[in-house]
Design goal:
It is built from six helices and two strands; from the N terminus they run H-H-H-H-E-E-H-H. The protein has helices at about 5-35, 40, 55-70, 85-100, 130-155, 160-165, and strands at about 115-120, 125-130. The longest helix has 29 residues, at about 5-35.
């Protein structure tokens, strides 16, 4: 039995975004309990040339949205959601989960061979097959940003562990 492109993508995004939402809730509670300005966590970086926590969450959501949309042959939606508060990030995660959860699994059929065009019309345009796009580009990018968000919070003293990162499966 083969694994469908939908099964290899959307449930993975849902699991880790739901877990990330829980991690962010713990981070917000941590900041409140310790009277830490939320911006200190939202703008925390592991190294000066890396994106801060808020941007890591945005990018993780963007990859979940764009990969799912492209594989389903849908337009990639744009969100006008800020990143100045934990509530903004929770709203972004909720919007992402609603979008990918609303995609018809049948729309992913055949997407393993669908040509995906990244950055169309630019000098950085790249064409890649759907399976390679998901397995070699989309999922690794998504995991990188979710992991970095987790690491930033763990590094800043939020009491979270592997169960929090993984969420329910």
């Amino acid at each position: 039995m083969s694994l469908s492109m939908h099964t290899a993508s959307v449930p993975v995004f849902q699991q880790l975004l739901t877990a990330l939402s829980g991690v962010l809730a713990k981070a917000e509670a941590h900041a409140t309990e310790r009277k830490i300005e939320p911006a200190a966590l939202l703008q925390a970086r592991l190294f000066p040339d890396m994106f801060p926590l808020a941007r890591q969450v945005q990018i993780a959501c963007d990859f979940a949205t764009s990969v799912s949309a492209r594989l389903a042959g849908e337009d990639v939606p744009a969100y006008e959601i800020g990143d100045q508060a934990f509530a903004d990030l929770q709203q972004r995660i909720a919007a992402t989960l609603a979008f990918i959860g609303g995609l018809d699994a049948a729309r992913f059929d055949g997407s393993e061979t669908r040509e995906i065009v990244l950055r169309p019309g630019t000098p950085k345009e790249r064409k890649i097959g759907g399976q390679a796009y998901l397995l070699s580009y989309g999922l690794p990018q998504f995991f990188f940003h979710v992991t970095t968000a987790y690491d930033l919070l763990r590094h800043n003293g939020v009491e979270i562990g592997k169960k929090d990162f993984m969420g329910a499966y």
